[in-house]
Design goal:
41% helix, Immunoglobulin-like, alpha+beta, four-stranded antiparallel β-sheet
Length: 177
């Protein structure tokens, strides 16, 4: 039993390391995008186009890897490994038209997780309590809150819940030029 838990914990550590690596690669892609916006020379633009194409392919590959590991970790939790651990994180991954916040969580059902927008603050919350016996119970929870950037309040934010993640999208304000 202890050997299985140790293996589960080692597997989790390896998966978390890969997730951190993926986040760094996504940040590298975002940095490349910012550099691209400042390139004026057509020759340099071609080089940057090639770099960005590679970065986008890398990001797509890393997203597939993250999804694979998310499913594997969820399986560990469902099969009883690391029952009392809270494994959650929020990634902000904007596109051209939206601010996008993605909460990934393991060890919680989607009904135990909420997302709320109030007074320009986005809050993600998860709570789980399990009665062990008359005097003892187990609990696990998380709480994240973010002050939102200026967004287009005329369009309602979109909140979608899946089995192991919640995605919130806000439309960006159109810049007037």
């Amino acid at each position: 039993m202890k050997e299985n838990q140790s293996q589960d914990q080692n597997t989790c550590k390896k998966c978390c390391s890969k997730v951190i690596c993926a986040i760094l690669l996504v940040a590298l892609g975002a940095t490349g995008t910012l550099i691209y916006q400042h390139v004026a020379n057509a020759k340099e633009k071609d080089v940057m186009d090639e770099y960005l194409k590679e970065a986008q392919e890398m990001e797509k590959s890393m997203n597939q890897i993250m999804e694979k590991h998310r499913k594997a970790l969820n399986k560990v939790f469902k099969e009883g490994g690391m029952k009392n651990s809270n494994q959650s994180m929020v990634i902000r991954n904007d596109d051209d038209e939206n601010f996008i916040y993605e909460l990934t969580f393991l060890g919680f059902s989607k009904d135990e997780v909420s997302a709320e927008i109030k007074d320009n603050i986005l809050t993600f919350e998860g709570a789980k309590k399990k009665q062990k016996d008359d005097e003892n119970y187990l609990s696990s929870n998380f709480y994240y809150s973010f002050s939102l950037p200026e967004y287009n309040a005329k369009k309602s934010p979109q909140i979608s819940k899946e089995e192991d993640k919640v995605v919130v999208k806000f439309a960006k304000k159109k810049s007037s030029k």
